[in-house]
Specification:
The complex is a heterodimer of chains A (324) and B (256). Helices cover 34% and strands 17% of the residues of chain A. Chain A has 324 residues and is of the alpha/beta class. Chain A folds into 2 domains: 246 residues, Glutaconate Coenzyme A-transferase (3-Layer(aba) Sandwich), CATH 3.40.1080; 50 residues, no CATH class. In chain A, strands 1, 2, 4, 6, 10, 11, 12 and 13 form an 8-stranded mixed sheet that branches. In chain A, strands 7-9-8 form a 3-stranded antiparallel sheet, with helices on one face. In chain A, α4 runs parallel beside α9 and α5 crosses α7. Chain B has 256 residues and is of the alpha/beta class. Chain B has one domain: Glutaconate Coenzyme A-transferase (3-Layer(aba) Sandwich), CATH 3.40.1080.10. Chain B is 24% helix and 18% strand. In chain B, a hairpin with a 6-residue loop joins β13 and β14. Chain B is globular, with a radius of gyration of 17 Å. The chains are: A alpha/beta (324), B alpha/beta (256). At the A-B interface, β5, α4, α5 and α7 of A face α3 and β9 of B.
Amino acid sequence: MGPSHTDKPQFPDTGRLGKDKKRSTKIASVDEVVSLIKPGCKLGLGGALHESRPVALLREVVKRRIGDLSVYSGPVAGYDVDLLIGAGLVKETFIPAITFESHGLAPNFREAVEGGLVKAHILDVLTVVGGLMAAALGLPFFPIAALKGTDEVKYNPLIKKFTPPFGDEDIYAVQPIAPDVVLLHAAESDPFGNIRNYGAFRSVDQLLAKAGKTVVVSVDKIVSPETIMQDPYRTTIPCVYIHKVVEIPYGAHPTASPSVYSTDDDHIAEYWQAAELKRTGRNPEVFKSYLRRYVDEPESIYRYLELVGGMRKLVELEKEERQL
Amino acid sequence: MMSLACKPVELMAIILARDISDGEKGAAGIAAAVPNAAMFLARRLHAPNFSICGELVVNPKPKRLYASVSDHRYHYGAEAEEGFLELFGSSHKGLDFWFHSGIQIDKYGNVNLHLLGSVERPTFRGPALANVSFAVTSKRFYLYPMVHNRRVFVDKVDFISVPGNLQGPESKAMAGLRNEGPRLCVSPLAVMDFDPVTLRMRLHSVHEGHTVDEVLANTGFDLIVPERVPITEPPTEEELRVLREEVDPDGLLRSY
């Protein structure tokens, strides 16, 4: 039997680990990590928009229909959160902007919010960063002084106006944002959870990792501890913040894993069309078959990767990334 | 003469580019192909020392036009990558300028990107935006609505995502908005600026092929119309060539 995505990858013992030989790894199976996500929990997603999103793990969440979720994220989301909403699994979002940029607006998000099924809280990037900073730094709040004249402050549930001890105007305090489970995707990790994330949004991942109660990372590749030790300055999130690591090749697809593969715009367009046909009521079946074909039926990541275009597509996405 | 093949959004990018000065600092939000084209164009044409910064990436040089900084391919050729700590700081300290589109824009240049109807149960939920601060902490900002009609140009926005001049000079001062605010509103039909006394939107020029009456018919409020309304200066051959050959070779703008 070939490898399945639920197998535990082998510990890459090169024989040069010395005392670390007895150290426990954080490598887990997809089943193990997804079982940490409970219905109704606060879920925090790393990356932003269509970069470094833990999509393979989210497909497993959808497959198991783990619902009633409160979703936090890097400051902009698109495909993945729209997919969760389209499967009916989201109670509320704490994400400043949700869009598909050049493809259009987020169809399932729009439909669910306009239909009163999902509460889309109104907040901005400083609230997200400040809230994560408070949680990451162990502070009861973080100050924000830049919010002026916007109606957001009347509705943002995470902030409160206060008179600071210094300065001459009232400003806002944002409460800590500490998701129950944070899901990240990165290019590489060693077996102990030392993460290398090369994306532009790695800094939000770094905050989420320090703010979350349980932190799980899918990586395209597990590398040896020696690789990490050769250049510790390239470690973006140290193992001490990470609870589980799961190796899922192309685990961010159709979003990008910077340095490894680019965004699959064609697949995102296919999804958008399906979701928009559902939203407009023209043909809800197309979205149902999208869920069936790409989420529910594939029994492994390898089957999924074949369905989205196989080697030809993946090589193309890697090539685009190399040429950047 | 303006090229017949020039799309309104291309003209918008060219007009915005002209207002960027050498040595300035600026950036744009998400879903922002037009302002990004404007910034890359300005840097190539007349503002080589203009820096894109403040929003994670410093001076990217992408090979083609991408909608925003949220697309990692936009970061190609950057001189530095920053984090959210720096973004938090830049958002408080401000840049020279910023840009906003809008699902609604009103006569005072207030911007709605969130929703139509009520907050509790919107009839339309827009994409919203990540950064509501950059426009007010920066020295000025630009509006670039992608369509010019009465649904977008409304008397009063349903929701103020980003304040322009609020309800005029007094309310603007009361809210602690001390910067210039919206300088220009560049639409597919015309260029608007703001009357310095009332802070209300005023017609500045009309693009070739369009008329003052057409602009007024598509504007849902009393736009101030000065005695003389010139034709918007058409793109030069050089502006259009650099835009199409160097900034947007794949024609992202032409696809809108």
